[in-house]
Amino acid sequence: ALRALGAERLTAQLAALVGARHEILMEQPLRGRTPGFAIAEFDEPQPVGEVVAAQITSAGETSVCAKALR
């Protein structure tokens, strides 16, 4: 029951990010983290180690999808 509650809250937290703009620290070419440590997935490679301005476009169960704002 506790794990289910945690998963439910994570999903709600990620859904609340949709539409927002964030500075994403890139850990891998297609994956980075928001300032709140949410995992952000990109469709196009971004420079690793850089901070990328992005808009959150959708949310899943464990991560959000982001689009770089260039």
Task: Describe the protein.
The chain is an alpha+beta fold. The chain is built from one helix and five strands. The protein has a five-stranded mixed barrel. It is elongated. The N and C termini lie far apart (43 Å). The model has no long low-confidence stretch (mean pLDDT 96).
Fill in the keyword field for this structure.
70 residues; five-stranded mixed β-barrel; alpha+beta
Taking the alpha carbons of the first and last residues, their distance comes to 43 Å
Structural class: alpha+beta
Q: Mind summarizing the main beta sheet? A: 5 strands, mixed, barrel
Shape: elongated
Brief summary:
This protein is α+β, with helices and mostly antiparallel strands and about 70 residues long.
How are the SSEs ordered, and which strands pair?
Blueprint (H helix, E strand, L loop, with lengths): L1 H14 L5 E8 L2 E3 L5 E4 L8 E9 L4 E5 L2
Parallel strand pairs: 3-5
Antiparallel strand pairs: 1-2, 1-4, 2-3, 4-5
